[in-house]
Write a structure and sequence with these properties.
The complex is a heterodimer. By secondary structure, chain A is mostly beta strands. Chain A contains no helices and 10 strands. In chain A, a hairpin with a 4-residue loop joins β6 and β7. Chain B is mainly beta. Chain B is globular, with a radius of gyration of 14 Å. In chain B, the strands form 3 sheets. In chain B, strands 2, 4, 5, 6, 9, 12 and 13 form a 7-stranded mixed beta sheet that branches. In chain B, strands 1-3-8-7 form a 4-stranded antiparallel beta sheet, with no helix packed on it. Classes of the chains: A mainly beta, B mainly beta. At the A-B interface, β3, β4 and β9 of A face β5, β11 and β12 of B.
Chain lengths: ~110, ~120
C-alpha cells in the first residue's frame, strides 16, 4: 500500500465482494498499528488498531492481520459496500510517540 | 463528543500574509498533533504536544511555521509569511496520550483546514 508522488495504488472491487488492502511497514520495533479511512474532503477516520502482541483483530466487517515476520499488515473488509470507497492508510508507531503513515490505497467499489 | 474541531475549514490568502489555524482537541485528550497533507508528500507530522508541552517539532518545515498550545483545549498553527508551497490540508489530531512514553492510543483527526496560498 505504498505510493510515490501523485499515484495512489487503487483496488477496485465489486459491491458485496471482500476487499483486502495490504501495507508493508518499515520498523521491526513498531508495536502499535492503526488503519484509517479517509473520504474525500474529510479527515482520516479510525477504523481498527492492533498491538504487536496480537496477530489478528476483528471489528465490525473489518479484520486486521499482522505478520511481524515479514512486517506486513492487511485490512480485510467483508461484503464491501459503496460507502467503503475511500483512501485507506496504515500507520505504525515506530518512534516512541509518533505515527508514521503509509502512502495510502484507494478503494473503489463498483455497484 | 464533538470530536476534534478545526477552524477555519477553508482559507485562501495571498503570499506573504500571516495564516493562523486553530484546533480544539477532544476533551480529556492530552496529546495533540498537527499534520500536513499534500498529494506529493502524503500525510506528514509537523509537531506534537503532550500535556500542552511541545515534544517534537522536527517536522516543522522552517521558521515560518510555529505552533502553540496555551491550554489543554486549544492550539494554533501559524505560518508567517505564507508561501504558495504551503498550500495543503492541515489536520489536527488528538489522543489520550502516552503510556510508558509510547503511543498506545489511537489519534482522532479533525476535518482539516484546506489552505490555498496564492
Amino acid at each position: 500500500g505504498e505510493s510515490v508522488g501523485l499515484h495512489l495504488p487503487t483496488l477496485s472491487v465489486q459491491e458485496g465482494d471482500n476487499s483486502i488492502i495490504n501495507c508493508a511497514y518499515s520498523n521491526s520495533a513498531s508495536d502499535y498499528f492503526i488503519w484509517y479511512k479517509q473520504e474525500s474532503g474529510k479527515g482520516p477516520q479510525f477504523i481498527i488498531d492492533i498491538r504487536s502482541n496480537m496477530d489478528k483483530r476483528q471489528g465490525q466487517r473489518v479484520t486486521v492481520l499482522l505478520n511481524k515476520t515479514v512486517k506486513h499488515l492487511s485490512l480485510q473488509i467483508a461484503a464491501t459496500q459503496p460507502g467503503d470507497s475511500a483512501v485507506y492508510f496504515c500507520a505504525e508507531n515506530n518512534a516512541g510517540n509518533m505515527l508514521t503513515f503509509g502512502g495510502g490505497t484507494r478503494l473503489m467499489v463498483k455497484p | 463528543d464533538a470530536g476534534v474541531i478545526q477552524s477555519p475549514r477553508h482559507e485562501v490568502t495571498e503570499m506573504g500574509q500571516e495564516v493562523t489555524l486553530r484546533c480544539k482537541p477532544i476533551s480529556g485528550h492530552n496529546s495533540l498533533f498537527w499534520y500536513r497533507q499534500t498529494m506529493m508528500r502524503g500525510l506528514e507530522l509537523l509537531i506534537y504536544f503532550n500535556n500542552n508541552v511541545p515534544i517534537d517539532d522536527s517536522g516543522m518545515p522552517e521558521d515560518r511555521f510555529s505552533a502553540k498550545m496555551p491550554n489543554a483545549s486549544f492550539s494554533t498553527l501559524k505560518i508567517q509569511p505564507s508561501e504558495p508551497r504551503d498550500s495543503a490540508v492541515y489536520f489536527c489530531a488528538s489522543s489520550r496520550g502516552l503510556a510508558g512514553g509510547r503511543l498506545q492510543e489511537t489519534q482522532y483527526f479533525g476535518p482539516g483546514t484546506r489552505l490555498l496560498v496564492l
